[in-house]
Amino acid sequence: MMLHGPAVLHFHGAPAALLHPGRRFVGRQRTSAFAAKCSWAALGVACRVGRLRCYAERRSAEALRSKVAKVVAKKDLKSAQRDAPDAIAEFQALQKDPLASWSLLDEGEFQNRVLSVLVVACVPCFILTAKVFPVTGDEGKVILQNVLADLTFGSSLAALLVTVVLLRIGHRQLEVNQFLRQRANFFETSGGGYYFQKKTEANERRDSLIHRYETAPSVAKVRRYVLSTLLFAAGSGLAGFASGGEMKIVEEEEEDDGGLG
Prior knowledge:
Elements: H1 16-19, H2 21-83, H3 87-96, H4 107-132, H5 144-181, E1 184-188, E2 194-198, H6 201-242
Antiparallel strand pairs: 1-2
InterPro entries: CGLD27-like (IPR009631)
Keywords: Membrane, Transmembrane, Transmembrane helix
Pfam families: CGLD27-like (PF06799)
């Protein structure tokens, strides 16, 4: 049978996708778009979770480093406090020092010990100056000017040696005196840091009393003796130059060249 116009066939019971192929294409596009959105959303969530995890790990690492640094700093502080000098410990060490403890003696005992050191030091100094200014001449006569030069120059050298001993005593005394005067303890750690720990009121009062009645008078006493020995050394030296002593002249022997005539 011939049909005019577009032929439309209707089949009863056929699927809609077969009857409408355009709808099937649109449905596929919607499904793929939804799947893409889901994929991007899942990727975004994964990235966000990864960033949060990295941030948490970084914060955890920073917290761990900070904790380790605090522990190390605490150990350094304890070590510095243990090794730092204490005023009372330094004062007790000064009392046990066989030489520096002289400064804590009374005036009479300290003076006797200083004079004893001066007498002992004079012996080698006189022997040394006698080599330079001989007591007797070539004829065996005693040269009074040389005897005076030996006594004065020897006394000057001995006084300088006593001054060195007094400076050693005074240096140790000043160190202890400084520890007693300061109001805070200074701690230096191995990492280059430092801490100040203020003394308690009781410790500060105790150190102040020790400084006032023990170390401060001792420092003043040592300074007086250092000045006295320096003046004595200078005066003895000037007296030695004014004594008119004659120094021993060593004549060099002429070498024999073995020549004739």
